[in-house]
Amino acid sequence: MTFFRRIFSRIVLVSLGIAIQIAWLLLIVFFLSDRYLWFAFGLNMLSLVIVLFIINRPGNPQIKMAWIVPILVFPLFGGIIFLLSGGKGPKKKLRRSLDRSAELVKPYMKSNIPVDPDDPDAPLTGEMDRTVAGHCYYLHEQGFTAYRDTASEYYYDCKAGWERILSDLERAEHFIFLEYFIIRPGKMWDPILEILKRKAAEGVDVRLMYDDVGSISYVPRDYHKTMESFGIKCVKFNPYRPVYAVVMNHRDHRKILVVDGHIAYTGGINFADEYIGEEIRFGEWWDNVLRLEGEGVRSMTLLFLQMWNAARPTDTVDGIAAFMPDPTRSVAVRCPGLVQPYGASPVDSEVVGENVYLNIINQATKYVYIFTPYVVIDYGMSRALSLAARRGVDVRLIAPAIPDKKIVYELTQSHFPELVENGVKVYKFTPGFVHSKCFVADDRIAVVGSINLDYRSLTLHFENACLFIDHPVIASVKEDFEVTLPRCERIEVKERRFNMLHDLYMGILRLFAPLL
């Protein structure tokens, strides 16, 4: 029964529909090319023009090569496939919606720290050295503000973090916002849903956004309608349809929960039983929950509202004000250090998530510790990690020992030899799967959020994270790494053996890694 259920699941049927479309497209191209020389010539010229376009447009060279090679090898249909799915950004309709929504929330993206890198007496640059202040200034230039007085708690015991979420949801009085990649009914999600239903009945504004592809195997096609029947406003982000189009690449991978504008959560977890140890899928699941309280929650609220109003316009500029935190409650929180929540998206003119990671690696002087489930990186990231290790920085990276995606895991392991040979200390979490996405460096800076070290997360998905500078939570992130490290196996340098078939296979995987 389970076999037939999987065969006839929505993801299989929709994927089959897309495959049939592609097959028909290829058959038409071959048919017309075989009978009309001018048609074949036109397709070849189209592919050549597209290759020149790819070469000249700004962007990652490795991503460019992943397209240039197949287009040149298959010029008859390579150009057409690129036009359908090769653009980095979302379609114009979604892009325009996101731009309008960004303008809607922009007036409320206010910091309690004036930022002026040219004024040595300005609060940000005056309180810390310019190197560390530069991290905040970069994100400030991208539209994300830094905040003082934002308390934070970091849970690497996800079950404890989940229980704290339940407690905070119970106290909601005005609104609850949730934006997650995966929603899966079970022991973790069901108690949350019961609270959401009850709060919605009490008049609390409850909004839920989940990604359709992320949740497609776990919830029915009309799950969003079921939520609406409970009084929960719901958006199924970017529905997975049997239409071959670039927009299918762009998923909402964010993890955001906001309660009344004063408390927010992010981190690595989704809402599925494996995250709290109630189901064993890939051995022990290692992840984190991050709780914020205070001024910095403003940005988390606005990140949610920006995406919500792009997908389902329900608020006006004046309406946004209703979700801003009560100043009297926010100022009651006192905490040293800075917190800077931020988002990354394919609409950005640059890869914000990757640039934050590169800035941390390039400016570290003592150590950089990294949790990541995937290591599918380009030459620039690989060299940054290697050069940091070679200049004496203690660079350590923890990845899973048990894979959740076998091909991606092979790509991850293919990067290990070069990193290890250059002095990066790479570890596998032997009990199972690491899902955390964290950087911590020099006891002064940390990032916790949803952003993986792979092309899809860095360039195609909508993501979010929090940057911490000189904040007490940094010690908790480092403690997580130190607690986890004894449970890991360090990867040693091994003599490479020549295996032509394997090397060819890995070469092909590495070439097409940006498209996987």
In words, what does this structure look like?
The protein is an alpha/beta fold and 516 residues long. Helices cover 46% and strands 18% of the residues. The chain has 22 helices and 19 strands. The protein has an eight-stranded mixed β-sheet, with helices on both faces. Strands 1-8-6-5-2-3-4 form a seven-stranded mixed β-sheet, with helices on both faces. Strands 7-14 form a two-stranded parallel sheet. Strand 2, helix 10 and strand 3 form a beta-alpha-beta unit.
**Residue share in helices?**
40-55%
Q: What is the makeup of the main sheet?
A: 8 strands, mixed
SS-derived structural category? alpha/beta
Number of helices: 22
Kindly report how far apart the N and C termini lie.
30 Å
Please mark out the parts with pLDDT under 50 across 5 or more consecutive residues, or reply none. Answer: none
Mean pLDDT: 84
Strand order of the largest sheet: 9-18-16-15-10-12-13-19
In percent, how much strand structure appears in the residues? 15-25%
Oligomer kind: single chain
Instruction: Estimate the global geometry from the Cα principal axes.
Output: globular
Radius of gyration: 23 Å
Strand tally is: 19
